[in-house]
Structure to design on (571 residues):
């Protein structure tokens, strides 16, 4: 149902439409350059080249639509809008243009224009169009027609919860907090009411109704001991005498922004295509620039599409005194890491520890960044501080123990690593990654092999399609001398992660142990071909693989002073 609201994949991915093709030879270079940039998600370059082509053929429908699409992807609605109006004036049906004109009318608070446009053929999709129409009635001050539109939409199967959520927000925006809370209390909003924004909206509504203790209880049950400046400010206001403001959708324009954000968030969770989601998110951000969740979503989408610089620029716009500054900086650091600028990411996070050093998430993120750069000792210190700031009742403490344990293991402190892994399992006993890591570590140390086998078997049961965990099971069976049993597990692991050098190397050892020596040599050669010399974190040992190919595994083990294999003759 939701995907039917979206544009065709070819329009989004290539910047194309069903309009007449470009025919002017003189503009073909710019057009092709723009199309190529669009395929690479380089929206700035696409917009530049399409605009150059459009300057020579200003009424070409395909160029108009492609340029509108590029500008919308950049969030530059102001430049997209006049081109979209040209398409509309020439009766060229285009969902991209309709998106732009909807954004323009909402920004101008031209609710009559939005309602008139809603009567035209085309549109964005029935759910988005219907919710925009309902909010337009709110903007006109006609709550009777607005409620009728919300109620009509709620009769359709599929998105009733989101419609009722918007109805509650609309009632709150005009001061009917009793009506809004009645919808929340009935759970008619469904999962929308359990999102961060939904919980905060309801808490503000309860505060307006002077039910502050209930609002505080809601925040506690929803977020537990988690804290950040925005939540802290809301809690402080609820605990004080100052009046509570309703900030989520204070007016109809903010409500229309929320429509686009709501659908962007839903589509993002359904992996409906990052292009689709980006257009909705950019329009939501255009209509409500202070909507921090939209900014974070937009930056995340740009990052996913490989547009790291655009993501970093978006996140850098949040001022230091904004309650969401820390969230934006955490996002900026993540984008810098993905852009292969780890030292800049670490610098951002170190600065954040000075301005927001009371937040465990900041120290945890710094620990992760340091660990990825193999700065294990300093990473451990960051995780120490994160654990100090995290309540002992917080169920997510296991993540910090696990991350610190990895850093300790990589720095050679095996005893501390084991202690932390066991602490993580005490909180989350069936966590497959922790079970696998500790089990594999015990196998590599040659200790507690039966316990290690039990851990890894539990990890495989919880995550049967993880090639690395299946590899661990095969490897512990091999280390226990149960070679025949190890074969099927290692073969399954190679199926799941076919080009991993360590897994292929392990399969070679297992084949050798059961007398399948030619197949073993083949696997070692495969493993060598997959070794990445730039991957400092890989356990792959190409020199040992070459030595096995030269003299065989038995001789290598003898050279290393290891116990010999109990060889099994191949069937």
């Amino acid at each position: 149902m939701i995907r039917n609201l979206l544009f065709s994949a070819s329009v989004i991915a290539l910047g194309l439409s069903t309009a007449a093709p470009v025919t002017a030879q003189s503009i073909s270079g710019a057009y092709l350059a723009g199309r190529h940039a669009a395929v690479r998600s380089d929206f700035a370059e696409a917009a530049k080249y399409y605009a150059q082509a459009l300057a020579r053929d200003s009424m070409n429908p395909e160029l108009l639509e492609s340029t509108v699409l590029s500008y919308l992807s950049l969030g530059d609605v102001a430049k997209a809008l006049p081109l979209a109006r040209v398409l509309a004036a020439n009766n060229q049906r285009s969902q991209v243009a309709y998106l732009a004109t909807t954004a323009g009318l909402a920004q101008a608070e031209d609710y009559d224009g939005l309602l008139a446009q809603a009567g035209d053929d085309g549109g964005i999709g029935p759910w988005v169009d219907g919710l925009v129409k309902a909010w337009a009635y709110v903007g006109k001050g006609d709550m009777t027609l607005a409620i009728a539109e919300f109620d009509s939409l709620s009769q359709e199967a599929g998105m009733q919860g989101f419609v009722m959520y918007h109805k509650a927000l609309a009632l709150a925006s005009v001061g009917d907090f009793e009506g809004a809370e009645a919808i929340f209390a009935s759970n008619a909003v469904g999962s929308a009411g359990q999102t961060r924004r939904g919980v905060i909206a309801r808490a503000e509504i309860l505060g307006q109704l002077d039910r502050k203790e209930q609002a505080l209880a809601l925040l506690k049950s929803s977020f537990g001991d988690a804290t950040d400046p925005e939540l802290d400010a809301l809690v402080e206001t609820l605990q004080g005498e100052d009046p509570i403001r309703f900030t989520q959708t204070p007016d109809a324009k903010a409500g229309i922004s929320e429509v686009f954000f709501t659908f962007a968030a839903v589509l993002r969770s359904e992996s409906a295509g990052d292009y689709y989601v980006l257009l909705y998110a950019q329009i939501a951000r255009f209509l409500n620039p202070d909507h921090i969740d939209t900014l974070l979503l937009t930056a995340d989408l740009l990052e996913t599409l490989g547009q790291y610089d655009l993501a970093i620029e978006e996140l850098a716009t949040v001022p230091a005194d904004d309650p969401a500054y820390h969230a934006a900086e955490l996002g900026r650091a993540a984008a810098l890491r993905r852009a292969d600028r780890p030292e800049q990411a670490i610098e951002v996070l170190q600065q954040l520890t000075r301005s927001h050093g009371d937040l465990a998430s900041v120290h945890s993120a710094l620990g992760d960044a340091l660990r990825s750069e193999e700065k294990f000792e300093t990473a451990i210190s960051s995780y120490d501080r994160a654990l100090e700031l995290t309540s002992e009742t917080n169920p997510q403490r296991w993540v910090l123990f696990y991350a610190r344990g990895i850093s300790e293991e990589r720095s050679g402190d095996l005893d501390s690593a084991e202690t932390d892994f066991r602490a993580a399992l005490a909180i989350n006993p069936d966590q497959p990654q922790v079970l696998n890591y500790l089990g594999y570590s015990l196998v590599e140390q040659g200790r507690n092999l039966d316990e290690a086998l039990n851990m890894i078997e539990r990890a495989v049961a919880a995550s049967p399609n993880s090639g690395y965990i299946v590899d661990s099971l095969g490897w512990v069976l091999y280390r226990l001398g149960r070679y025949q049993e190890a074969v099927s597990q290692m073969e399954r692991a190679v199926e799941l992660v076919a080009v991993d050098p360590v897994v292929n190397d392990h399969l070679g050892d297992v084949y050798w142990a059961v007398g399948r020596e030619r197949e073993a040599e083949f696997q070692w050669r495969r493993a060598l071909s997959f070794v990445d010399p730039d991957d400092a974190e890989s356990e792959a040992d190409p020199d040992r693989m070459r030595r096995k190919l030269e003299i065989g595994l038995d001789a290598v083990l003898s050279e290393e002073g290891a116990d010999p294999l109990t060889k099994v003759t191949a069937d």
Observations:
- The two ends are 55 Å apart (CA to CA).
- The chain has 32 helices and no strands.
- Residues 313-429 form a domain with the Serine Threonine Protein Phosphatase 5, Tetratricopeptide repeat fold (CATH 1.25.40.10).
